[in-house]
TrEMBL record:
GO molecular function, one term: transmembrane transporter activity
Species in which this protein is naturally found: Suttonella ornithocola
One Pfam assignment: ThrE
Source domain of life: Bacteria
Subcellular location field: Cell membrane
Cellular component, GO annotation: plasma membrane
Protein name: Inner membrane protein YjjP
GO biological process, one term: succinate transport
Membrane topology (UniProt): Multi-pass membrane protein
Taxonomic classification: Bacteria, Pseudomonadati, Pseudomonadota, Gammaproteobacteria, Cardiobacteriales
Length: 258
Protein backbone atom coordinates (compact mmCIF):
# COMPACT_ATOMS: atom_id res chain seq x y z
CA UNK A 1 0.00 0.00 0.00
CA UNK A 2 1.30 3.45 -0.91
CA UNK A 3 1.90 6.04 1.77
CA UNK A 4 -0.67 8.43 0.28
CA UNK A 5 -3.36 5.75 0.49
CA UNK A 6 -2.49 5.14 4.13
CA UNK A 7 -2.77 8.87 4.77
CA UNK A 8 -6.21 8.89 3.15
CA UNK A 9 -7.35 5.98 5.33
CA UNK A 10 -6.08 7.83 8.40
CA UNK A 11 -7.93 10.98 7.41
CA UNK A 12 -11.15 9.07 6.81
CA UNK A 13 -10.91 7.25 10.14
CA UNK A 14 -10.21 10.50 11.98
CA UNK A 15 -13.14 12.20 10.28
CA UNK A 16 -15.41 9.30 11.16
CA UNK A 17 -14.38 9.47 14.81
CA UNK A 18 -14.95 13.24 14.94
CA UNK A 19 -18.39 13.00 13.33
CA UNK A 20 -19.50 10.32 15.76
CA UNK A 21 -18.02 11.84 18.90
CA UNK A 22 -19.25 15.38 18.20
CA UNK A 23 -22.82 14.19 17.68
CA UNK A 24 -23.43 12.19 20.83
CA UNK A 25 -22.13 8.68 20.11
CA UNK A 26 -20.76 6.71 23.04
CA UNK A 27 -17.03 6.04 23.16
CA UNK A 28 -17.27 2.30 22.44
CA UNK A 29 -19.21 3.01 19.25
CA UNK A 30 -16.72 5.67 18.14
CA UNK A 31 -13.71 3.40 18.62
CA UNK A 32 -15.49 0.39 17.11
CA UNK A 33 -16.69 2.17 13.97
CA UNK A 34 -13.33 3.88 13.43
CA UNK A 35 -11.40 0.63 13.77
CA UNK A 36 -13.76 -1.29 11.50
CA UNK A 37 -13.56 1.37 8.80
CA UNK A 38 -9.77 1.35 8.83
CA UNK A 39 -9.62 -2.44 8.60
CA UNK A 40 -12.22 -2.48 5.82
CA UNK A 41 -10.16 -0.02 3.75
CA UNK A 42 -6.97 -2.07 4.01
CA UNK A 43 -5.25 -1.14 7.26
CA UNK A 44 -3.74 -3.92 9.36
CA UNK A 45 -4.36 -2.25 12.70
CA UNK A 46 -6.14 0.86 13.95
CA UNK A 47 -5.63 2.35 17.41
CA UNK A 48 -7.94 5.12 18.59
CA UNK A 49 -7.64 7.08 21.82
CA UNK A 50 -10.36 9.48 22.90
CA UNK A 51 -10.32 12.47 25.21
CA UNK A 52 -13.08 14.91 26.00
CA UNK A 53 -11.90 17.45 23.42
CA UNK A 54 -9.61 15.52 21.05
CA UNK A 55 -8.84 12.19 19.41
CA UNK A 56 -5.52 10.49 18.68
CA UNK A 57 -5.55 7.93 15.88
CA UNK A 58 -2.86 5.55 14.64
CA UNK A 59 -3.19 3.50 11.45
CA UNK A 60 -0.66 0.70 10.90
CA UNK A 61 0.07 -0.74 7.44
CA UNK A 62 3.00 -3.11 6.75
CA UNK A 63 4.57 -2.15 10.07
CA UNK A 64 4.49 1.56 9.23
CA UNK A 65 2.60 3.75 11.73
CA UNK A 66 0.85 6.95 10.83
CA UNK A 67 -0.56 8.96 13.73
CA UNK A 68 -2.81 12.01 13.72
CA UNK A 69 -4.37 14.08 16.47
CA UNK A 70 -7.55 16.05 15.87
CA UNK A 71 -9.27 18.56 18.09
CA UNK A 72 -12.96 18.10 18.77
CA UNK A 73 -15.22 21.10 18.26
CA UNK A 74 -18.57 21.65 19.89
CA UNK A 75 -20.46 18.59 21.09
CA UNK A 76 -24.13 18.13 20.30
CA UNK A 77 -26.69 15.41 19.72
CA UNK A 78 -27.68 14.36 16.20
CA UNK A 79 -28.52 10.70 15.75
CA UNK A 80 -29.18 11.24 12.03
CA UNK A 81 -25.48 11.92 11.49
CA UNK A 82 -24.45 9.00 13.72
CA UNK A 83 -26.70 6.61 11.79
CA UNK A 84 -25.46 7.86 8.41
CA UNK A 85 -21.83 7.33 9.43
CA UNK A 86 -22.61 3.83 10.71
CA UNK A 87 -24.25 2.91 7.40
CA UNK A 88 -21.19 4.15 5.52
CA UNK A 89 -18.88 2.01 7.66
CA UNK A 90 -21.08 -1.06 7.19
CA UNK A 91 -21.08 -0.56 3.42
CA UNK A 92 -17.29 -0.29 3.42
CA UNK A 93 -17.06 -3.50 5.46
CA UNK A 94 -19.25 -5.25 2.90
CA UNK A 95 -16.76 -4.31 0.19
CA UNK A 96 -19.09 -1.96 -1.65
CA UNK A 97 -17.03 1.19 -1.03
CA UNK A 98 -13.44 2.27 -1.56
CA UNK A 99 -11.66 5.29 -0.06
CA UNK A 100 -12.98 7.75 -2.61
CA UNK A 101 -16.56 6.56 -2.21
CA UNK A 102 -16.33 6.69 1.57
CA UNK A 103 -14.98 10.23 1.29
CA UNK A 104 -17.92 11.27 -0.90
CA UNK A 105 -20.47 9.69 1.43
CA UNK A 106 -18.97 11.40 4.47
CA UNK A 107 -19.20 14.70 2.58
CA UNK A 108 -22.88 14.00 1.98
CA UNK A 109 -23.71 13.17 5.59
CA UNK A 110 -26.87 15.19 6.31
CA UNK A 111 -26.16 18.19 8.51
CA UNK A 112 -29.76 19.34 8.66
CA UNK A 113 -31.56 19.70 11.97
CA UNK A 114 -35.17 20.04 12.93
CA UNK A 115 -36.60 23.52 12.28
CA UNK A 116 -36.11 25.85 15.23
CA UNK A 117 -39.81 26.63 15.58
CA UNK A 118 -40.64 22.91 15.72
CA UNK A 119 -37.93 22.18 18.28
CA UNK A 120 -38.98 25.08 20.50
CA UNK A 121 -42.66 24.15 20.34
CA UNK A 122 -42.14 20.45 21.04
CA UNK A 123 -39.76 21.09 23.94
CA UNK A 124 -42.19 23.54 25.51
CA UNK A 125 -45.05 21.09 25.01
CA UNK A 126 -43.06 18.28 26.64
CA UNK A 127 -42.37 20.48 29.67
CA UNK A 128 -46.08 21.30 29.95
CA UNK A 129 -46.98 17.61 29.66
CA UNK A 130 -44.49 16.74 32.38
CA UNK A 131 -46.09 19.36 34.62
CA UNK A 132 -49.51 17.86 33.95
CA UNK A 133 -48.27 14.34 34.71
CA UNK A 134 -46.86 15.66 37.99
CA UNK A 135 -50.25 16.98 39.06
CA UNK A 136 -50.20 20.60 37.86
CA UNK A 137 -53.48 22.31 36.98
CA UNK A 138 -54.29 23.42 33.44
CA UNK A 139 -53.34 27.05 34.05
CA UNK A 140 -49.98 26.00 35.49
CA UNK A 141 -49.36 23.80 32.45
CA UNK A 142 -50.09 26.76 30.18
CA UNK A 143 -47.67 28.94 32.12
CA UNK A 144 -45.08 26.16 31.97
CA UNK A 145 -45.49 25.99 28.20
CA UNK A 146 -44.99 29.74 27.81
CA UNK A 147 -41.98 29.86 30.15
CA UNK A 148 -40.28 26.91 28.47
CA UNK A 149 -41.17 28.28 25.02
CA UNK A 150 -39.47 31.64 25.58
CA UNK A 151 -36.60 29.99 27.42
CA UNK A 152 -35.96 27.74 24.43
CA UNK A 153 -36.11 30.73 22.08
CA UNK A 154 -33.31 32.32 24.10
CA UNK A 155 -31.34 29.08 24.02
CA UNK A 156 -31.68 28.68 20.24
CA UNK A 157 -30.71 32.31 19.61
CA UNK A 158 -27.63 32.11 21.82
CA UNK A 159 -26.54 28.78 20.34
CA UNK A 160 -26.68 30.28 16.85
CA UNK A 161 -24.29 32.98 18.06
CA UNK A 162 -21.98 30.22 19.41
CA UNK A 163 -22.09 31.66 22.91
CA UNK A 164 -20.46 29.69 25.70
CA UNK A 165 -22.67 26.74 26.65
CA UNK A 166 -22.57 27.61 30.35
CA UNK A 167 -23.80 31.14 29.69
CA UNK A 168 -26.47 29.75 27.36
CA UNK A 169 -27.77 27.38 30.04
CA UNK A 170 -27.74 30.11 32.68
CA UNK A 171 -29.58 32.58 30.45
CA UNK A 172 -32.17 29.98 29.43
CA UNK A 173 -32.83 28.99 33.03
CA UNK A 174 -33.04 32.64 34.05
CA UNK A 175 -35.65 33.53 31.40
CA UNK A 176 -37.80 30.42 31.97
CA UNK A 177 -37.73 30.80 35.76
CA UNK A 178 -38.36 34.55 35.56
CA UNK A 179 -41.52 34.06 33.49
CA UNK A 180 -42.83 31.17 35.59
CA UNK A 181 -42.02 33.02 38.80
CA UNK A 182 -43.74 36.19 37.60
CA UNK A 183 -47.03 34.36 37.13
CA UNK A 184 -46.50 32.62 40.45
CA UNK A 185 -46.16 36.02 42.12
CA UNK A 186 -49.52 36.98 40.61
CA UNK A 187 -51.07 33.95 42.30
CA UNK A 188 -52.19 32.34 39.05
CA UNK A 189 -50.88 28.91 39.93
CA UNK A 190 -52.06 26.52 42.61
CA UNK A 191 -49.08 24.19 41.98
CA UNK A 192 -46.08 26.57 41.77
CA UNK A 193 -43.49 23.96 42.72
CA UNK A 194 -44.40 21.71 39.81
CA UNK A 195 -44.67 24.63 37.41
CA UNK A 196 -41.28 26.11 38.30
CA UNK A 197 -39.52 22.76 38.08
CA UNK A 198 -41.11 21.72 34.79
CA UNK A 199 -40.30 25.04 33.10
CA UNK A 200 -36.56 24.26 33.16
CA UNK A 201 -36.85 20.54 32.48
CA UNK A 202 -35.26 20.95 29.02
CA UNK A 203 -31.97 21.89 30.70
CA UNK A 204 -31.45 18.49 32.31
CA UNK A 205 -28.33 17.07 30.55
CA UNK A 206 -29.69 13.54 30.30
CA UNK A 207 -27.78 12.42 27.22
CA UNK A 208 -24.30 13.33 28.55
CA UNK A 209 -25.11 11.65 31.86
CA UNK A 210 -26.23 8.44 30.15
CA UNK A 211 -23.14 8.44 27.93
CA UNK A 212 -20.88 9.05 30.92
CA UNK A 213 -22.31 6.02 32.71
CA UNK A 214 -22.06 3.89 29.56
CA UNK A 215 -18.45 4.95 28.97
CA UNK A 216 -17.48 4.19 32.55
CA UNK A 217 -19.07 0.74 32.49
CA UNK A 218 -17.34 -0.11 29.20
CA UNK A 219 -13.88 0.88 30.38
CA UNK A 220 -13.56 4.37 28.91
CA UNK A 221 -13.13 5.91 32.32
CA UNK A 222 -11.53 9.19 31.21
CA UNK A 223 -14.37 9.88 28.80
CA UNK A 224 -16.95 8.86 31.38
CA UNK A 225 -15.54 11.20 34.01
CA UNK A 226 -15.15 14.00 31.47
CA UNK A 227 -18.71 13.73 30.24
CA UNK A 228 -20.06 13.45 33.77
CA UNK A 229 -18.15 16.57 34.79
CA UNK A 230 -19.45 18.47 31.76
CA UNK A 231 -23.03 17.48 32.60
CA UNK A 232 -22.47 18.55 36.21
CA UNK A 233 -21.12 21.95 35.19
CA UNK A 234 -24.09 22.49 32.85
CA UNK A 235 -26.44 21.64 35.70
CA UNK A 236 -24.70 24.11 38.01
CA UNK A 237 -24.94 26.80 35.32
CA UNK A 238 -28.69 26.20 35.04
CA UNK A 239 -29.02 26.36 38.84
CA UNK A 240 -27.28 29.73 38.89
CA UNK A 241 -29.75 31.06 36.34
CA UNK A 242 -32.67 29.78 38.40
CA UNK A 243 -31.34 31.28 41.64
CA UNK A 244 -30.65 34.64 40.03
CA UNK A 245 -34.20 34.78 38.61
CA UNK A 246 -35.66 34.00 42.04
CA UNK A 247 -33.55 36.78 43.57
CA UNK A 248 -34.81 39.25 40.98
CA UNK A 249 -38.40 38.26 41.76
CA UNK A 250 -37.80 38.31 45.49
CA UNK A 251 -38.92 34.71 45.91
CA UNK A 252 -37.58 32.26 48.47
CA UNK A 253 -36.10 29.25 46.69
CA UNK A 254 -37.07 26.91 49.54
CA UNK A 255 -40.70 27.97 49.44
CA UNK A 256 -40.97 27.85 45.66
CA UNK A 257 -39.08 24.67 44.83
CA UNK A 258 -39.56 22.51 47.92
Amino acid sequence: MQEEQQREITRLCARTALLLLSNGAESALVVGMTTRLGLALGAQQVECTLTVNAIVLTVIVDGYCLTTARRLGSMGINMTIVTAVQRTVLSAEAGRLDCQQVHKLLDKVPQSRYPAYLTVSMVALSCACFARLSGADILSCTITFLAAFFGMIVRVKLEKKHLNALMTFSATAFVATLLAGFFQRLGWSHTPQTMMAAAVLMLVPGFPLINSLSDGLKGYMNMGVGRWMWATVLTLAACLGIIFALLVLGLDAKEVLL
